[in-house]
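Q: Could you write out the predicted structure for this multi-component system? I'm mainly interested in how the pieces pack against one another.
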Amino acid sequence: MVRVILPYHLQTLAQVPKEVQLTVEGPISIASVLTALEGAYPVLKGTIRDHETLKRRSFLRFFAAGEDISLEPTDQPLPVAVALGREPLMVVGAIAGG
Amino acid sequence: MSRVRVLVGTKKGAFVCEADGKRKDWSIEGPLFGGWEIYHMKGSPIDPNRIFASQSSGWFGQIIQRSDDGGKTWAPPSGAAEGESNRFVYDGVPGTHRWYDGTPHPWEFKRVWHMEPSLADPDSVLAGVEDAALFESKDAGATWSELSGLRQHTTGQDWQPGAGGMCLHTILVDPTNPDRIWVAISAAGCFRSDDGGHTWKTANKGLISEFMPSPDAEVGHCVHRIAFHPSRPSTLFMQKHWDIMRSDDSGDTWREVSGNLPSDFGFPIDVHAHEQETVYVVPIKSDSEHYVPEGKLRVYRSRVGGNEWEPLTHGLPQQDCYVNVLRDAMAVDTLEDCGVYFGTTGGQVYVSPDGGDHWSAINEHFPTVLSVEVQTLG
């Protein structure tokens, strides 16, 4: 199982706890994890990545195994620790606004 | 006994307030969607338990919410395909409009500013969005398609955003002819369709905007809000960036009716539920100082369709008040004595149960109020 930590607003939107666990088909990448996440919780479609372009929304970042991987190709394999469920993929909202 | 339900959208969530016909003792439910911006909520005129809400965030984008039980429970609308209710895709190749600096800029969806449920079908609803376009849903908000004739108007490439973005913020549908629709866009102007939204004509003749190189241009006017009385939709009232305007020919031509107002800059405008010539505005000091003049929160009422305005102050703060009332934050109920409601950037929501003569606060400590709508319940 892949673990994903969601920011507060998406937890309340999807009515899930801070961490969700997903079964991910195929290679474990940002793209495949988000596809599994959106499959499990369709209300999250369009909130993390654009419906059409699948680009990450500007004020969100992806952290994994202590690294900011937001700018990495989304089909690049995630760290083994994330793929094995020892570490979560973190979806993080930028600190901005009031 | 009749009741009213007030739908309050704020920068940090939504609130549902209810009272009986006296409009004195209020229950307040919320915050709903805590932490999200709620630009607008509006109930279906034919099924008051059905309410649509536009929920958005700079981080997470647009969400549409719907309640089918009068605001008690909510969920994003879902149809055959789940997760599509926040998918607003411009029709065809979107092209460009004009950016602040005059250069071409791609059309980009940002958020839904206003939702207008159908007068005839509880599953039909229109949405006005930023960047300015009109979308419709025929499945109660589950999916959306653009009525692209508006954005593809010959002037569309020349539309520019105002300070608040290029938003389609007002939608009026003629109760006597559902094919006739008016929309208002900042900062493009007013447009009218006579064929259900497929084709559009500009409706800006008579508007003068001194900030433009050509003050009487066909488009470019920063219309803040338009309103009509449902029984006389051919007469429209407009709060423009500056100027209160009136049209008696369905928007073909406009004339100024600012009259004796202390300032003709403001955002909301509304019409009494039973008096076609009674109009309400809330002037603010200027385009540079978005707060009420002299520290006094005054609603101004004209009983003669403009030009002659009287301040309404009873129960409103008359010193040290520096709030604004945004364009979608005023509404009227349809009870016999016509309640008037408005919300402020300071978080107060006020009600007058007698057409503006006396005011009291429903609540004084909401987050910044973005929108106020009211439902009159049997």
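A: Regarding packing and overall arrangement: Residues 3-377 of chain B form a domain with the Methylamine Dehydrogenase; Chain H fold (CATH 2.130.10.10).
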